[in-house]
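Fold this sequence, please.
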Amino acid sequence: MKLISDGCKFFGSSLEGRKTATKHLIGFTHKAPIMIDSLSYIFTFPTTSPKRKNDCIWVFPQHLSRYHKAPHSRTHLIFHNGFEITLDISFDSFSNQLARTSLLHMKLLGNFDKAKRKNLYLTGNTPPSLRAAESTPHYNYDQNNNIPMNHSLLNRTRDDTFTDDTPKL
């Protein structure tokens, strides 16, 4: 719990604040997933109630490669680095915890996208990721006639070149 709490603090929040946010966003309070960092999308979830300190294991799903049922109502995890572990949590319960974490992740992504769109609307600033890669048109030929074409019909000149008042893309 101390590592989870310290991770939340490192990224500007408290564990209690993250729990409150999870409850607000997806409505879960029991074995709730926690977002540790919103920028790098670091999420974790407990396998049991965190109050059961000796039995609770925190799983970071971004490191999980795959998982499957194991004998005696357990779940076997295989991580990207090859590490494997069998946990005392049923496959269905583990899948449910993973689904809750995914729901929290998707809810936050949706909220981030809404905030970006709102900012774009209010400021009129286009984020660099949405701007054209080329600032001027280099391909100004008509495909049918191979005649140079101006991209602005309003400022067209006789020789089909750009004038100083032609808007550039």
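Residues 44 and 60 are 4 Å apart (CA to CA). The chain is about 30% helix and 15% strand.
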